[in-house]
Write a structure and sequence with these properties.
heterodimer; A: 65 residues; alpha+beta; two-stranded antiparallel ribbon; 2 helices; 22% strand; globular; B: 393 residues; five-stranded mixed sheet
Chain lengths: 65, 393
């Protein structure tokens, strides 16, 4: 699975970093989300999809790797 | 719309009816305006995420919850509640680093210590006792004081004025005076921290933005007042209402009391969904014509995004009127949605997790001092709640 973050849309609410901490982290200066890994393993798919659903601004997108 | 007094945790029956029969419909509000009311979960998310709906309170058609809300939205400058993008994000980013998950998690031991100290005092007092004043209001106030860097000597003034700011018995004059007092306290503090910074939010903002001329100390103070208004009685009311809710569900309370961190976190999401203290929804005005669910919302028309009723939509939550701490509730709308979704949500979650578990674990025999149907639920308040909760043990 390939994950992308649109940092212009992200407001740093941080939901994704709680739902899939292995994939998402927040920049210290403003909380905007960065990826820990762009091609996370399949076993994280469920957590990532939950993060996508909970992102308030639609800043996370996923595609088949 | 009125709640059924026998079911204080349920939305007004009329709202429920609208959700099934007329999910996007015009309603008449307190000041005579007739905004659209949106009541289904996906439609609420649509409105809150779409930039064609504005939060700017000075735009004609924007539907205020009350005269007081309209005033604070106008008078605090800058105020992220009252700005659309791109300005909103510019200001939000000045504070969002302080509320990121990892940073808030480092506060857990301090929040636990503040909660424990408050409970020590509660337990040292012979019951009955008002949990609202002695616990629910106190904990969020002390936590935000520490985070902002308000010195101990100013805590009492800060607590008193922030209480007046949110009290439903305060007159417009009381609110204006309390607001001025807090603004000047925080502005003076910003000037002091600019010269001698310590490790807190005001110092960081003073160094980063006042010293560089990006913001004036008065603007930094207003941004901090905004944090206070957003995070204070919302959390306090959640503490009290969750307490009542759990006491009415003894089996789930037992599971919660003995639950691990994951169950506690999940249960708090369900409390947030089920109670939804910002019960009057989110207010927007359309910037252009938008078609939604077969209805044409015209430019300049107001919209109320019904977050509370949206969280009782069976399309998003099976058996929505059932309180169930095991359900998946994380996608609830209590913190809003879109770019304005609550900045302080990690802090709110932390405070609720710590306060509720400590309360029920340290006072296992906690009970209401009066029957639930005699509790003074504040149906008219901007933030739903109880401004007195007498308990015994």
């Amino acid at each position: 699975m390939k994950v992308k973050i649109d940092q212009k849309l992200c407001v740093g609410a941080g939901n994704c970093t709680q739902l899939a901490a292995a994939v998402f982290t927040q920049r210290p200066e403003d909380g905007i989300v960065e990826l820990r890994q762009e091609n996370p393993p399949q076993e994280l798919a469920e957590a990532i999809l939950k993060a996508v659903r909970n992102c308030p601004t639609g800043a996370i997108s996923v595609s088949e790797a | 719309m009125k709640r059924d007094l026998k079911c204080p945790f349920n939305p007004p029956p009329d709202l429920k009816r609208l959700q099934s029969e007329a999910p996007i419909t015009k309603v008449r509000i307190w000041n005579g305006q007739t905004p659209w009311l949106v009541t289904r979960y996906e439609d609420v998310r649509f409105v809150l995420k779409d930039p064609r709906f504005s939060v700017v309170p000075t735009r004609p058609g924007w539907p205020p919850m009350s005269a007081g809300q309209a005033a604070t939205r106008r008078d605090l400058k800058p105020n992220i509640f009252s700005l659309d993008n791109p300005e909103h994000n510019d200001y939000r980013k000045m504070m969002s680093g302080d509320f990121r998950i990892a940073k808030i998690e480092t506060l857990r031991p301090r929040v636990q210590a503040i909660v424990d100290a408050a409970l020590d005092e509660v337990l040292a007092t012979p019951p009955p006792l008002d949990l609202w004043t002695h616990f629910a209001l106190k904990v969020p106030s002390l936590v935000i004081c520490e985070m902002l860097g308000v010195p101990y000597s100013d805590h009492e003034l800060f607590q008193d004025r922030s209480e007046k700011l949110v009290s439903t018995t305060s007159s417009d004059q009381d609110i204006a005076t309390a607001l001025k007092d807090i603004q000047s306290l925080l502005e003076n503090l910003t000037r002091a921290k600019q010269a001698a910074p310590t490790d807190d939010i005001i110092s960081r903002m003073a160094v980063q933005y006042a010293r560089t001329g990006v913001l004036t100390p008065a603007e930094i103070a207003d941004m901090c007042v905004m944090l206070l208004i957003a995070g204070h009685d919302t959390t306090s009311n959640m503490i009290c209402l969750s307490t009542v809710l759990f006491l009415g569900h003894p089996e789930q309370l037992e599971e919660f009391r003995n639950g691990d961190a994951a169950l506690v976190a999940n249960a708090v999401e369900e409390c947030l969904r089920y109670i939804n203290v910002p019960h009057l929804g989110r207010r927007r005005v359309a910037l252009e014509d938008v078609e939604l669910g077969g209805v044409l919302i015209r430019a300049g028309e107001g919209v109320i995004a019904g977050t509370m009723i949206g969280d009782r939509d069976e399309r998003a939550f099976p058996s929505p009127d059932e309180f169930n701490i095991h359900r998946e509730a994380r996608h609830m709308l209590a913190f809003g949605y879109g770019v304005h979704q609550c900045l302080g949500q990690p802090l709110a979650r932390l405070e609720l997790q710590v306060a509720l578990t400590a309360l029920f674990r340290r006072i296992p025999t906690l009970k209401l001092a009066v029957p639930q149907d005699q509790l003074p639920f504040d149906y008219e308040a901007l933030v739903y709640g109880l401004h007195e909760l007498v308990v015994t043990w």
